[in-house]
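ugh ok so i messed up the first submission bc i forgot one of the chains. this is the corrected input, ALL of the components this time, i swear. 1112 residues overall. if the numbers dont match what u have on ur side tell me asap before i send this to the collaborators (the ones from the other lab, u know who)
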Amino acid sequence: MNRFSSTPRRRLLDALWPWLCAASVALSLLMLAALLALLVVRGLGHFWPATLEEITLRSGAIVAGQPTREAPLPQAEGFERLYFTANRDIDGVSWRWVNLDDIVSRSTPSDLIRLERNPWGDFIGRLAGVETGGQLLREDQAWRYLTQALALPQAERPDAELLLVTTDGQTLRQSLSGVSQALAPNAMSWWQKMHTWSRNVWQFLSQGPRAANTGGGVWPAIFGTVLMVILMSVIVTPFGVLAAIYLNEIAHQNRLTRLVRIGVRNLAGVPSIVYGVFGLGVFVYGIGGTLDSWFFSDTLPSPTFGTGGLLWASLTLALLTLPVVIVATEEGLARIPDAQREGAVALGATRLEMLVRIVLPMAIPAMLTGVILAVARAAGEVAPLMLVGVAKLAPQMPVDGEFPYLHLERKFMHLGYHLFDTAFHGEDVQAAMPLVYATALLLVLIVLVLNLTAIFLRHYFRRQRGSEC
Amino acid sequence: MLASLDSATASQAPVTHFSSEHSALSINQFNLAYAGKSALRDLTLSIPRHRVTAFIGPSGCGKSTLLRAINRLHDLNESVAHSGNIQLEGQDIYAPQMNVTELRRRVGMVFQSPNPFPMSIYENVAFGLRLQHRLPKRQRDDIIEWALTSAALWDEVKDRLHRSAWQLSGGQQQRLVIARTLAVQPDVLLLDEPASALDPISTLKIEELIRNLKSQLTLVLVTHNMQQAARVSDYTAFLHTGELVEYGPTDQVFTNPRLQRTENYITGRMT
Amino acid sequence: MTPPRAAVSRQPLRQLKNRIATGLITAGGIGVLLAILAIGVFLVWETLPLLAWDQTFAFSKLSPLAWGTLKAALAAMLFALPIALGAAMYSALFMSARLRSRVKPTLEMMEAIPGVVVGFIAGLVLAPWVERHLASTLALLIWLPISAGLAGVLWHMAASRWRQWLPLSWAGLWLLPWLVCMVLLALWFAPLLENFLLGGDLRRLLEQHWGMDYATRNALIVGIAMGFAVIPSIYALAEDALADVPTSLMEGAQALGASRWQALWKVALPAAGPGIFSAVMIGAGRAVGETMIVLMASGNMALLSVSPFEGMRSMAAAIAIELPEASPGGLTYHHLILAALVLFIFTFLVNTLAEVVRSRMRRRYHKAGRHS
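and heres the new structure output, hopefully the right one now
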């Protein structure tokens, strides 16, 4: 403090506050980077075939598993480590905290294998042999047989029994039909791991969830999200554009128009859950209930349209994103110089001709930007969907081979809700966490890519127009 | 048309009259108010056919407003009210049975800064045509060539008709806008300071074009460039604060103005 | 040269088409605007039946929710405001143009991160971590601003060669590694300090001395998570407002001998005041209505407590959880719709206020620009 003794407080303030402000920027960037890094590392790391450890404890017990994380002991000095030990059918649990002080030795034997099974989840241990057609294969032969069999499509796999041994010596017979993947991660080269990693990512994107959302993928959720968003854009684009044209080109520009414009802008700030309430009350109970009593009275009281579904969700989100489209389109329309409109009108064009031939083509980039922003917002929105039609596990996809192919009344899965549900209502949250990270990463990626597209589009068209003028 | 230096008669500015067969436009006691503020007051004048008439005056005097009133461009703005009438070939253009789009076809307008549409040169000229008629391509091409030739632009653009019009220079763009207007074959062409945004050479080209075009149609030119008015126009009207101060043959207005106000303006003592 | 003659006029049809289309657009536009208006009408209509019921019951049911909403929003604003406004001031007044053109879109991108993702990180990653490292967290919250000031002091003491290497205009970027080091330092030092000063666990101390319960998911977590979510919207609007203040104003003030700090307080902030105010309002509106983050990071207990270490249940979260189960027409249903109405009216008013203030300011600038 002595350095600033002349006019101490003011000099100090004057010197320091820019640094506090600069640190705010740095801190915001840091938080963003940390969030994204966490998602990327945990989300993508899960698919990497992790090394399996075999540890000998002081008590003499031998445990095999995948080390997950470490934490200080709750009431004492030292640390403990969490192992994913799988084998829920044998041990009753699949996670185990081990005090670091209890570990006598650690090793990574290359013959440890990890099987993905249904039911009972993963198995970690050793393959003692394979029994097939009365023949018993052992050692390398057995492993080779197993990998070849698993490379075949599910239907063509031979009948076989695997003889498995856990590290603490318990044996187990497992039929081949329940196994979906077998890995010996400790014996894999980097290249093989890479291969397995990309296959796992692909499975995550292309398969349905398994084992109470702790395994498998999120394909139905991706499909549901995309379908809902497409339906929503189909609804929101024409109406949003229509309203924007009306506000900007046709309505008398007076106090009322200004009020309406402010109102529309502000609706973008109304919480999404309020739209959800509106959707539930008007679309689901109001319109849906009426539709049911007119056309589907034979199935009542079990509702057809009178419950949440794809159509109502799309409509609700369309209403939610309407302000986004209107505002973006209006901005685009307002940027078109009046000289263009007057030029067209002075040549004898009617208002419709002026709009269709001059104004709208010039406003297309703005509309596109608006729709993309709307889609980005809708893709990440979960709260209203909880009220109007999302399901934990939809038994049927909303599109199938059955007439009328697109089932607007069905419930559907949604990435964001899937994430919420798995993370907060799952049976084994610990086991599902990696997949939750992966889902979160996927969702963030989709939304960010959409937003970036909108930014680049806007930037590109603005620059293009600027250079040509 | 004798000059009177009496300032008492200045407010009752004499009007040049043309018999109806010589007059393309006649404006009678025309008033216009913009959001309650009077912009044009009691204008009466008639504009001769196949001549260039220039409106001059300090900025804000209402000359552009008058031009836009002739094209009924104020229709797009609700806060504009008017009284009196403007007759195009004897028809009141503000009459309810008047077809506005047809009026605007017959009265072309060129604006201060060039405003070509964001499309090709060809499409710019074809724009008005496509609105009016469904023509075979051959015939349309002929009209476009004729319009571009009339606007003295054909030789410069005939090899790049399908390039974007925004790649042309400012002067070329302005001539393209004139060609676009000519293509729908108007009777009257209104030019609102058509050269104010252009360099001197482009300005000369536009002026030459204006002189050449008067054999085909009636031209009304708004300018704040006195030399330009003197160079290209046959008649000159001097407007000030929404009123017509003096109107007569250009030679007379510039060399021997009747009123002191006009002389002050022309000699640059009043801006 | 005579013009080639054209024939076949399309006049009458064009006028008709124009009239029909204009009518359709008008009808469609008004229809869409009415549909938007219908939200408000619906909410009011569905709340009306409540008038027939006992009012005190509704009040007792809604007041913990209203308190929870306010508490969550308050916590978020406490966390977000200093950071967002500081960042806005820095990037509007000091940051180099090149860095600004990168940083601003990046921070605005933050806004796009879905609430469900932020809520998940907050509820399942941040909350357990903070529970284990409560002392470290609090130490971080205090230490980070101090360390930023420390960076400033060091910079002023450093040789001028260093200062040119690390200019203030790029500080937003090169302070990153500094902050990371400071975070690590705090994490390493805080447990030692906790042991030394408090003799062990801060949480136990809180419980024994002040009788404060600690819930894993609490207002602190919600504040940080929702603060993170509203920083970008406050930042973007406040930054716009500050960047709109003509630089000549600030320079003029400094030419008259004002320090940068005085120039900011006396000139920039008053000029950008309305813009900053509306930024804060819009941030508050967002914090009040955010559903998923509160739902996932707050524990959802309807409590009336002021402790930052206890959870809450907000109106938005209550709607999301209870409304799907409430039977339409029942008392709960109407109560929840009343909650939605309150949210709607509150956010709408706050946003309108912000918008009006902002457009006033814009008009004033336009005028100033014309006169200058």
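quick check: Residues 54-131+213-367 of chain C form a domain with the MetI-like fold fold (CATH 1.10.3720.10). that seems consistent at least. DSSP finds 14 helices and no strands in chain C.
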